[in-house]
Amino acid sequence: MELNIPRIDRALNPETVAVIGDKGPGYTWLTNMQTFSGKVYSVQLDEKEIPGIEAMGITNYKSVMDIPEHVDYAVIAVPRRVSPFVFRDCVTKGVSGVGMFTSGFAESGSEEGVELQKEITQMAEDSGIVLLGPNCMGLYNPNLGVRFMVEQATGYSGDVSVISQSGGHAGGIAAMANSNGVKLNKVVSFGNGVVLENGDWLDYFAQDPTTRIIVMYIEGVRNGRSFLPKLKEATAKKPVIVWKGGQTPAGQRATSSHTGSLAESMNSWDAVIKQAGAIRCDDLEEVSDALKGLYFLPPFSGNRVGLAGGTGGQSVSMTDSFSKAGMEVPVLSNDSLDSLGEIMQVIGASYNNPIDIGAVNRDHFDEILEIWANDPHVDSLMMQFTPGMYRRSPEAAESQINSFINLKKVGKPLFAVLHSTDPYNDAESLNIIDNMLKEENIPSYQNYDRAANSILKIINYYRNKQ
Amino acid sequence: MELNIPRIDRALNPETVAVIGDKGPGYTWLTNMQTFSGKVYSVQLDEKEIPGIEAMGITNYKSVMDIPEHVDYAVIAVPRRVSPFVFRDCVTKGVSGVGMFTSGFAESGSEEGVELQKEITQMAEDSGIVLLGPNCMGLYNPNLGVRFMVEQATGYSGDVSVISQSGGHAGGIAAMANSNGVKLNKVVSFGNGVVLENGDWLDYFAQDPTTRIIVMYIEGVRNGRSFLPKLKEATAKKPVIVWKGGQTPAGQRATSSHTGSLAESMNSWDAVIKQAGAIRCDDLEEVSDALKGLYFLPPFSGNRVGLAGGTGGQSVSMTDSFSKAGMEVPVLSNDSLDSLGEIMQVIGASYNNPIDIGAVNRDHFDEILEIWANDPHVDSLMMQFTPGMYRRSPEAAESQINSFINLKKVGKPLFAVLHSTDPYNDAESLNIIDNMLKEENIPSYQNYDRAANSILKIINYYRNKQ
Question: What pLDDT digit, counting tens, does each position of A28-86 carry?
Fold first, then answer.
């Protein structure tokens, strides 16, 4: 459909928000909006609920029509039977956009739900109102403090936008991004997407000058044929990560009761993602890893990786992981090997790549790393750190992490693996190491496979662009 | 080779231990042995080191020959050039077994290293001494407090034995097992394995009545043809997890400088593992996950899984993961669906499997779980828990975890996924949930894929046995 860009802009960057139908004791949606930088109004008819709302310092009206100014974004959280009436009011009032949390429509499989969805769809189409939903979490705009979950960070502006049919996955991707230090622009959860759906949101964010990277969680597209050209066009402008949910017949049964999406063959999805040059991810962790790499690393397309920081068995494992993922783990150049041979004691260490810096060679740590990093055979550099090292000596560990950070001057992409055999109990040290690296825009991964697979996705994306 | 079982028994279950060549300031090996239940002696010639050793309350001798009783297990940690002399003394003394930490032999690629290794091999072969190594960490026996790393737990007896060419991976597998609540019997790291190698240790633990499960990390076997029958025979008796390091040409280059293992085609390894009916794992996490499941779950072979505990998008994802791994996610029986239909409000929940228990249905949590668990279409039960749930209300979360634990009465295998978008910061809650489950012998996994893949490995193992 033809997008009304200014209207979507206004809905997603609201100055006034109305929450319709929020209820105590928690007043979830009004609580979510406590960080909103603009004006929040409540719309609630139920006399029992109004005192609680007013106690929060929020003005309540009996109808959205009564709000004495323009409403840019409204959350509708009323029972499904009431939703058409409330939605009609929003249309009449000229509200820019609506996030309709209410569920129980076509995805419920009930006749009543299907009928109610038709009614809402018709109104939205006729009016051109920007409708997120129904059956969704709506909008998260960290810069303006518009949230759909109370844990969501606000007060910063970023350049990654997320399009998701699932509210849970929209929340999950956002939470992972926030904890990874990836700054978000907007997150839209749009559930059944009866008017604006995947292709529309993709078009919008592809043209949005404030969006540098797009992430999508898709359960189904209404117009399959038009989606490929849209994805191609978006990918030509900026990286698009695509996670398709419902990859198996049983998974598609689950999408149908989740957002009412129809089954589509995963083979054709494979082809679409590949042809468009988008970045395919198959679960939340893959999305998180690929996004982190895209966000922090400069564009690069060389797949020869330098590896360091493991003991013998770990050197074998990291080599297997990166090689199996499709990256090259080359032997260093003869010049490097000669220089390393002069510095390193051969016993208890190996240095042809991976570099396994035995304890006897710790005194030459910086020298060894610099030879390794400057080797002409390697395009990017991965170093492993362990929480055990940190626990035994924070000073020694920090000094080694800083030696790695110092390699930024070489100009090659740097990334890390934080290897732990007990991630729950090691969390404190892991967090410290992760934060040190994050502050320097160095992404870290939880194991070799996750690192290798996500880095290769990024390399392949930039190779396709060439 | 013909194994001298009583001699190996004695080496692995020592009453006296000698540490040869330990040095200050840390005295690593003597410190490791502080938990040993028997008698520890030190052997050290260097007058500068002796006062430190004696200050630890340990008697030092100039030669192993001088120790006034039989030595069951000796750690050799001297420079490589000295090692043949020290080793010869052990042979002469009639020491039962030696863990030779000293490295720099064939794996170094140097002529001197190759020669020294030959010398040691010859002595070991001629004498029949039980040699772990060289270039290894040796023995970890938690029951007797023999350790090769100071962090290793002791004072319990278990029934899982680990055979590893890599000391790092032996330590990693042991650490993961300990943190998962899996009780270990013995862990042997044997590095270059110049006499006793993979097949020998496999034979030993296959016949060992105190070992229920065997885990192997293999870099290379010296006699490829004899290994398959050994693995078949062991697998007929007990589950054997096999992790082959050096799966790629680059990875094999790394094994060669690690334990001097020769390159072998991964295709033939695939075939060997499959034909023998062993359980193939490709990294530390896969080993940890498969071991945890084998250890805690009863034998079972039905691959139809019941899933619960996610919201809509997560239900789609868990279904995709389990289906892609090769498990079946069946729709529940009509009887169950009818019963659930009477209890559950359809809006905001789905219950055909996965069961997505919407907030409106929390009052009927136990009833819903019991119908789901008793459904004749499902063979095993997976429930997801989140640290967010725990943070918001520990009581509510614990009550739900207990409801799941309560399903043990149904008699089907139970396992869990602990879903987190921020594992480092969620660690405290994750640990609490994990511990509650572990105490009830319910294994938990960090994500759907890891759960699905490891459970399927276990099912396939028991299917092969049928």
Answer: 999 999 999 999 999 999 999 999 999 999 999 999 999 999 999 999 999 999 999 99
Q: Report the number of distinct structural domains present in chain B.
A: 3
pLDDT band at A260 (very low <50, low <70, confident <90, very high): confident
Q: For B299-345, how does the pLDDT look when each residue is reduced to its tens digit (9 = 90+)?
A: 999 999 999 999 889 999 999 999 999 999 999 999 999 999 888 76
Shared-domain flag, residues B455 and B323: yes
| Last-in-domain residue among B280, B296, B312 | B296
What gap in Å lies between CA A20 and CA A33, rounded to an integer? 12
For residue A432, what is the nearest residue in chain B, using CA coordinates?
A: B424
Domain region containing A31: 1-132
One domain for residues B228 and B278: yes
Whether the predicted pLDDT of B234 surpasses 70: yes
CA A118 to chain B, closest CA, distance in angstroms equals 17
- Residues on chain B touching A285 (C-beta within 8 angstroms): 447
Do A424 and B431 count as a contact with CB atoms less than 8 A apart?
Answer: yes
Q: Which domain-ending residue is among B79, B105, B133?
A: B133
Cα separation of A238 and A73, whole Å? 27
Same domain for A84 and A210, yes or no, is: no
User: Which of A168, A172, A431 has the CB atom closest to B424's CB atom?
Assistant: A431
Residues of chain A in contact with residue B328, where contact means CB-CB under 8 angstroms, are: 250
Same structural domain, A12 and A106: yes
**Residues of chain A positioned with their CB less than 8 A from the CB of B324:** 247-248
Of B108, B217, B352, the CB nearest to A257: B352
Instruction: Quote the strand ranges of B173-299, DSSP E.
Output: 184-189, 213-218, 240-244, 279-281
Determine contact, residues A158/A171, Cβ cutoff 8 Å. Answer: no
B251 touches chain A (CB under 8 A): yes
Q: What is the pLDDT of residue A255?
A: 87
Q: What share of chain A is helix, strand, coil (3-state, %, to 5)?
A: 50, 15, 35
What CATH number is given to the structural domain containing B396?
Answer: 3.40.50.261
Residues in chain B with CB shorter than 8 Å from the CB of A320 are 245-248, 250-251, 254, 282-283
ipTM for the predicted complex comes to 0.93
What would the DSSP string read from start to end of B296-344?
Answer: HSPP----BEEEES--HHHHHHHHHHHHHHT-B-PPPPHHHHHHHHHHS
